[in-house]
Design a protein that fits this description.
Structural class: alpha+beta
Shape: globular
Mean pLDDT: 95
Helix content: 25-40%
Oligomer: single chain
Length: 862
């Protein structure tokens, strides 16, 4: 890229309606950007440079930057026409300063000063704005319900826990963006047990009064005894001024609950007092004359003081808002509603604290709760899991496994939640006064749909971001039909998430696996056919659909799936660390614990597009997941213990490892992981029929050496339907090894040949019956056809894709209306495996072999 070349940026969805801190990622062609070259951000309106903070997140093998990340503070005046190019970044007007002592870390944005603890209790010590303290403390809280049975009688007791910090690290120190990571555990308030590890990241930006929090908790309990009754973040907010000038706000379905602990509403509120009451309700301060208003003040003294308020979102379909005068008295219902916005505020004269919990109703049961508004300090709790609901039940759905009847995959149960995690996002605003409706609307929008900058699809493709994929092309009738089908599948799943209510703290972001047309439900209770858990790479399908279209709604689908699958479906510590759970009734239920579930190849899209540090952690966690297979051999049901430490398949196992190693190599330039890839490739090159061989090998994770276990064993389709080809195509661009590329092409050309044709190539050593599900092979088949200029294979690829129901059926017009518990739109043959793979493979085929479409469309591929 020349110094004059510019990269156009745009908002993912809405433009920023208030000043916000934004972090985003940009890809680069190999050799275009040297690591020492500075970058500048400009707005088209006045041509002025906008301050930007930049850093590399991945490198090409030649040392140039593959992905860069950027942070800026943007408002309406910079909202349009942003471009990135080489050049010195503008000097920022405001800078974040970070100060560390032995005991604390202080972040100063120029507007607020945030003091964090480094160990022990009180992880958030204070937040000060303009010399006034708007938050006097913050901590994580947990309520655990402990269950036991004595002499046949079940007993429960509730135990309370608070956060205890073990480590605090400044990960980024400005000038525009600062990040602090806090790690700790929850400790019983009586000083007993510690459990539930957590990671909490705080993000601040120069010149802003907001704080972004990314909170991850890890389950390390016994699911038969340790039930989480409540889990949240509690903030202490100083309450100043008379009670009638203190305010509470909760976002409802479309408006806001707006009240004070001492409302001006009495049976005698008339005239000027009615006007004052209206002022109070919109958050404006009111004042009284002691003499003139003596009688009305006496009425206020006599009226009830409402000290506590709470909003509980018990499901995706219902919340209840209540308030209470004092402990020991009943809660009074204010209203019931549908889906609350997830934004709350509490404060008095001199300001207060607003908090927005992202995906509030989608990740129910959540809540907002305020106590102590009548006193000198209020406790404002954001509940990730509200204690007003049933406790979390992380037990398995059965005490035995169902391999034959339910496709659960392994005879061993291994259904444990020990080591899984859940990540949630929260935004705080430290405000000088009670916000009005317009400001609340803006904060609500930002908390639920954070501002993000993205590049245009054409740029992502030209830079080679994430390997091979095509841009939408409607230049012919057939291509238009293919594009309509791709969009139709996306629309179907968007509707299905809502229709089937795929929501909840542990479920949101995932889809179900396959459908039962008799009961008109997805197979929610059929073992290996319930939740998808990354089976056949739906993450990749959604991310590639975003890359090629730039659609913000698809980005949010992919983001939600990434957050879920990277945390809930994967083990972050314990016996299965580095592995994940295959599809099941409960996400962690299947006895098959495999590396493919949590492979970096599924999650790196989100990392590089957003620079999200939590996903970076997760990709680091799996770098050595191959060692976990020594303790849990993926092929233990087929190969007994022998001279090899373990046994793996070239795909999905080694494909998953290679995605982890490629990511480690490009992020850290760690050549030890590159070399492990090269060792594996060299072993496959030496196999009897290269990639066609196997697919099972003896494996030593210490050396990376693969030893063939025969050429006619089962599961060739598994080698290429779990994201392997997508990783390998991108890896080929880094390795530049013609033999590796030819091996991929050879496998694609070979896959769908007849037995007679296979026998010519492999001398009868390999049976066609092991090459199942042709639609799953289409991506690598298209690659083979393109690489070897094989017209027959290209035509075979298109016949497979166009003979599939996902091409032949318009999901929007063919859906039938059926009655189950509710009235539903149904496609009775639906399955997510094929939806993801047909879409992903069609997109790649359009890039590589579009000129061989049956109607003879002109070449818009490579």
């Amino acid at each position: 890229m020349s110094a004059e070349t510019t990269i156009a940026l745009r908002w993912l969805q809405q433009e920023a309606s208030l000043p916000v801190g934004v972090t985003w990622g940009v890809p680069w062609k190999e050799g275009e950007l040297k690591r020492e070259e500075p970058l500048s951000l400009q707005a088209s309106g006045d041509g002025q440079a906008v301050p930007v903070q930049s850093w590399p997140t991945a490198y090409w093998p030649d040392g140039s930057v593959k992905w860069s990340a950027h942070a800026a503070v943007l408002g309406r005046e910079e909202a349009q026409g942003l471009t990135l190019k080489k050049g010195q970044a503008a000097d920022p007007k405001h800078k974040v300063s970070v100060t560390e002592t032995e005991d604390t870390i202080t972040l100063d944005t120029g507007v607020i000063v945030v003091t964090l603890g480094k160990r022990g209790a009180g992880l958030l010590r204070s937040i000060v704005r303009d010399g006034a303290e708007v938050c006097s403390g913050g901590e994580l809280v947990c309520v655990k319900e402990e269950r036991s049975e004595v002499s046949g009688t079940a007993t429960t007791r509730e135990l309370r826990f608070e956060s205890r910090l073990l480590r605090a690290v400044v990960e980024q120190a400005g000038p525009l963006r600062a990040v602090v990571r806090l790690d700790g555990r929850h400790r019983g308030v009586n000083g007993t047990r510690e459990w539930l590890p957590f990671t909490l990241r705080l993000y601040v930006y120069a010149g802003l009064d907001s704080i972004r929090l990314v909170h991850t908790f890890f389950y390390d309990g016994n699911p038969h005894q340790d039930f989480i009754k409540g889990l949240g973040i509690r903030f202490a907010v100083p309450m100043k001024g008379p009670q009638y000038n203190r305010h509470v706000r909760f976002a409802g379905d479309s408006g806001y609950f707006s009240e004070s602990p001492k409302t001006l509403h009495t049976r005698r509120t008339k005239g000027k007092y009615r006007e004052l009451f209206e002022r109070q309700t919109v958050g404006q301060p009111v004042a009284f004359d002691a003499a003139e208003d003596a009688y009305f003040l006496s009425l206020l003294d006599d009226s009830a003081t409402w000290d506590s308020f709470k909003l509980v979102q018990s499901s995706s379909e219902h919340y209840r808002l209540s308030k209470r005068t004092k402990e020991g008295c009943s809660w009074v219902k204010v209203t019931d509603g549908h889906r609350a916005g997830g934004l709350g505020y509490v404060g008095g004269e001199g300001g207060g604290l607003a908090a927005g919990l992202r995906h509030f109703w989608k990740k129910h049961p959540s809540g907002l709760e305020v106590h102590g508004t009548a006193g000198s300090e209020a406790a404002f709790t954001v509940w990730l899991w509200s204690p007003d609901n049933e406790p979390m039940d992380l037990r398995h759905y059965d005490t035995e496994t169902h391999v034959e009847s339910s496709y659960e995959g392994a005879e061993e149960l291994r259904a444990t939640p020990y080591g899984i995690a859940n990540t949630n996002e929260l935004t705080l605003w430290c405000l000088p006064q009670t916000p009005g409706t317009e400001q609340l609307d803006r904060m609500l929008e930002e908390s639920q749909s954070p501002s993000l900058l993205v590049c245009e699809p054409e740029y992502y493709r030209s830079a080679g971001a994430f390997g091979l994929w095509s841009l939408p092309d409607r230049s012919s009738e057939l291509k238009r039909k293919l594009e309509n089908r791709l969009e139709g599948i996306i629309s179907f799943y968007q509707d299905e998430v809502e229709q089937r209510k795929w929501y909840g703290l542990w479920d949101y972001g995932d889809y179900m696996h396959s459908y039962d047309p008799v009961r008109h439900v997805w197979n929610y209770d059929l073992g290996g056919c319930a939740w998808q858990n990354t089976e056949l790479a739906p993450n990749m399908w959604l991310w590639v659909m975003f890359l090629r279209t730039g659609r913000g709604d698809i980005f949010r689908m992919a983001e939600a799936m990434t957050r879920h699958t990277s945390e809930v479906d994967v083990y972050h510590f314990g016996e299965y660390a580095g592995l994940g759970s295959r599809h099941n009734v409960v996400h962690w239920g299947c006895g098959c614990k495999e590396a493919r579930i949590g492979m970096a190849g599924l999650h790196r899209y989100y990392y590089y597009l957003t620079a999200d540090e939590r996903i970076g952690d997760i990709m680091d966690e799996v770098k050595d997941s191959d060692f976990a297979t020594v303790n849990l051999d993926p092929m233990r049901a087929y190969f007994p213990k022998d001279e090899h430490p373990t046994h793996i398949r070239v795909g999905p196992d080694w494909a998953a490892f290679s995605s982890n190693w490629m990511t480690r190599w490009e992020r850290y330039e760690d050549k030890a992981y590159r070399d492990k890839i090269l060792v594996g490739i060299d072993c496959v090159k030496k196999a009897n029929y290269r990639l066609i061989s196997g697919p099972t090998y003896g494996y030593d994770p210490k050396t990376g050496v693969l030893t063939p276990m025969g050429d006619d064993n089962w599961g060739r389709h598994l080698a290429i339907c779990m994201g392997g080809p997508q990783v390998w195509f991108e890896l080929a661009a880094m390795l530049k090894d013609p033999e590796w590329e030819d091996m991929l092409a050879e496998f694609g050309v070979y896959y769908n040949k007849s037995q007679e044709e296979k026998d010519v190539l492999t001398k009868g050593a390999i049976s066609t019956k092991h090459f199942e599900h042709p639609v799953l092979s289409a991506a690598i088949v298209a690659y083979g056809a393109y690489y070897r200029k094989d017209v027959e294979t290209a035509r075979k690829c298109w016949s497979i894709l166009m003979g599939n129901p996902f091409y032949q059926v318009d999901l929007q017009t063919e859906a039938e209306i059926v009655t189950h518990v509710d009235t539903l739109n149904e496609i009775d043959w639906m399955n997510t495996n094929e939806a993801a793979q047909w879409s992903l493979n069609t997109i790649i085929a359009l890039e590589l072999i579009s000129e061989h479409l049956p109607e003879g469309a002109e070449d818009h591929g490579k």
